[in-house]
Amino acid sequence: MSRTCELTAKAVMSGNNVSHANNKTKRRFLPNLVNVTLISEALNQNVRLRISANALRSVEHRGGLDAFLVKADAKELSQRARLLKKQIAKKLAEQPVA
């Protein structure tokens, strides 16, 4: 399983540890990934995703998984998230506007 957020495409970055004597050694900056279960109201089901803590905040800010995926750019999403986005868009298009 790669260390990549399924919603925001945040991944591992590389850089240097720099000592007081200015010695540089390679290191990795890992994203803060969390396994979460989010509820899709349009699909009426729970969805398990591995996303960053920052993405979780963004999902909550936008008003849930459905609203986040509708606005999200498909290039940044994982394959599973793209499939979810397509299913949600199809379901929302079927519903009559009240």
Automatic annotation (TrEMBL):
Offer a single GO CC term for the protein.
cytosolic large ribosomal subunit
Q: What's a single GO BP term from this record?
A: translation
Q: What's the domain of life for this entry?
A: Bacteria
Which Pfam families does the record associate with it? Ribosomal_L28
InterPro entries linked: Ribosomal_bL28, Ribosomal_bL28/bL31-like_sf, Ribosomal_bL28_bact-type, Ribosomal_bL28_sf
Task: Recite the UniProt keywords alphabetically.
Answer: Ribonucleoprotein, Ribosomal protein
Which GO molecular-function terms appear in the entry?
structural constituent of ribosome
UniProt lists the family membership as follows: Belongs to the bacterial ribosomal protein bL28 family.
Which named protein is this? Answer: Large ribosomal subunit protein bL28
Q: Which gene encodes it?
A: rpmB
